[in-house]
Specification:
Elements: H1 4-22, H2 34-43, H3 45-64, H4 77-88, E1 97-98, E2 103-104, E3 116-122, E4 125-130, H5 131-134, E5 139-143, E6 148-154, E7 159-165, E8 174-178, E9 185-188, E10 193-196, E11 211-215, E12 217-221, H6 222-228, E13 233-235, H7 257-260, E14 266-271, E15 276-279, E16 288-292, E17 295-301, E18 307-311, E19 322-324, E20 333-337, E21 343-345, E22 350-352, E23 362-370, H8 371-377, E24 382-384, H9 395-422
Parallel strand pairs: 1-5, 4-13, 15-24
Antiparallel strand pairs: 2-13, 3-4, 3-12, 5-6, 6-7, 7-11, 8-9, 9-10, 14-15, 14-23, 16-17, 17-18, 18-23, 19-20, 20-21, 21-22
């Protein structure tokens, strides 16, 4: 009977240490309540650690007092090993929050031209965040004159989320907990709130405390970004955080079987009121005139390779069908439409024609995101599958197509006549 007491105490210590050590492992996300387990283990980690420490101290004290034999100390080995794993192991332990980011001018950085960066523009200033820096410090908080900007990078999803934040958000209270389903999972220690990196929202879909407006981000090479924004500033890396992948990596963590098959398919996430995605290969320079649910939408890829999406509504009630401009009068013009014959630029503005001055409502688009991650974090996300009828074709192309078809018919008729004569 006496031997059951140390066994019970050691079991309690090991169980508490085990939940604290492995409860936040990302692979729990494959199970239906795995995310709940990860979040619960973080909420109660310090009480669990306290229980494990007190139980271990009690065993050590009773052995030292001669009440128990010394071999009972062997039972503390699993507890020590679990604590070591908790504070040194796991992917989240190698990441940190850059709570007070600083920046360099382009001539002060060693970023190569073919390296990928996350770019954004805030208060008229452009910023570049190299992938290899973000791999180690995926949460970057920078102070602005009136607010803060927070960038959250989920490398395994190839997804960047940026938002403005007010001064109530304390960057030093943000903690990286885990990477379930290839998304960063943050915890605000001050208020006990979780933040999902892929969505920029809480797990329930609410806006996190202190977060304000989302900022569009771009993922491109440093060369392309610098060409477009020569006065950009570049993130100054934290000490020891200068090496890492310089281009997108594939998802590394376990996913539910129902969505794992899409793990390496990259899509463009369109952040409309009802989030949707479209396969990267389905978007070209040709305008796609789509209906996504009840929303008319225009999607295309601009000259820089960026996917753009707009609400296809102009002048209050017009839903124009856009076509490429064959011979634009202005180099900025890429589309027109038959409703008004207006001239439209790639930022959704009409600069000539009856609708001059109109601007289409833009949607934020994040290109190159892995579909499996979106399926997990956006369970109601819509899939956009364009058809040939959705592609806007220029009048010149239509005329050329009709001429080609007519030539084909005459050619076929000529061959048919020759065959009849020969018979």
């Amino acid at each position: 009977m006496k031997s059951l007491i140390p066994i019970l105490i050691l079991t309690t210590a090991a169980a508490a240490a085990a939940v604290a050590a492995v409860g936040s492992q990302p692979n729990w996300a494959v199970y239906s309540h795995g995310l709940d387990l990860i979040m619960l283990s973080r909420r109660v980690q310090w009480p669990l650690i306290a229980v494990a420490v007190m139980a271990s101290a009690l065993v050590a004290a009773l052995v030292a007092a001669g009440r128990w034999r010394v071999y009972w100390l062997i039972g503390l080995t699993p507890v020590v090993a679990l604590f070591a794993h908790r504070f040194t192991g796991g992917p989240a332990r190698s990441m940190c929050v850059d709570a007070n980011a600083s920046f360099l001018s382009p001539d002060q950085t060693d970023v190569a031209g073919d390296e990928y960066i996350v770019g954004l523009i805030a208060d008229g200033q452009s910023y570049a965040y190299p992938y290899r820096y973000l791999f180690h410090s995926p949460v970057v908080v920078q102070a602005m004159p009136q607010r803060r900007v927070v960038l959250i990078w989920s490398a395994d999803a190839n997804r960047a989320v940026a938002t403005t934040a007010d001064w109530s958000l304390s960057p030093r209270d943000l903690e990286i907990v885990s990477t379930p389903a290839d998304s960063l999972l943050l915890y605000n220690n001050e208020i006990g709130q979780f933040i999902v990196g892929v969505t920029g929202l809480t797990p329930s879909g609410a806006r996190p405390s202190g977060f304000d407006q989302m900022i569009p981000t771009v993922k491109t090479t440093w060369k392309n970004w610098l060409t477009a924004h020569p006065r950009t500033l570049v993130l100054h890396p934290l000490q020891g955080c200068t090496t890492g992948p310089t281009s997108p990596i594939v998802p590394r963590f376990a996913l539910p079987r129902s969505i794992a098959a899409a793990s390496v398919q990259q899509v463009a996430l369109i952040q409309s009121p009802h989030p949707a995605f479209i396969a990267d290969g389905d978007v070209t320079a040709a305008p796609l005139n789509l209906m996504v649910g009840v929303d008319p939408m225009l999607i295309f890829r601009d000259n820089g390779g960026t996917v753009r999406a707009f609400m296809r509504v102009a002048n209050g009630d017009l839903t124009p069908r856009f076509i490429p401009v064959s011979t634009p009068r202005n180099t900025r013009v890429i589309f027109t439409e038959h409703d008004s014959n207006s001239q439209w630029t790639d930022d959704g503005r009409a600069i000539a024609g009856q609708l001059k001055g109109e601007k289409l409502q833009p949607f934020d688009v994040d290109d190159g995101v892995y579909l499996s991650v979106l399926r997990y974090w956006y369970p109601q996300i819509q899939s956009i599958v364009p058809t040939p009828a959705d592609v806007g074709v220029s009048d010149a192309a239509i005329v050329a197509g009709k001429k080609s078809a007519a030539r084909h018919r005459r050619h076929s008729h000529h061959h048919a006549s020759l065959f009849t004569a020969a018979s």
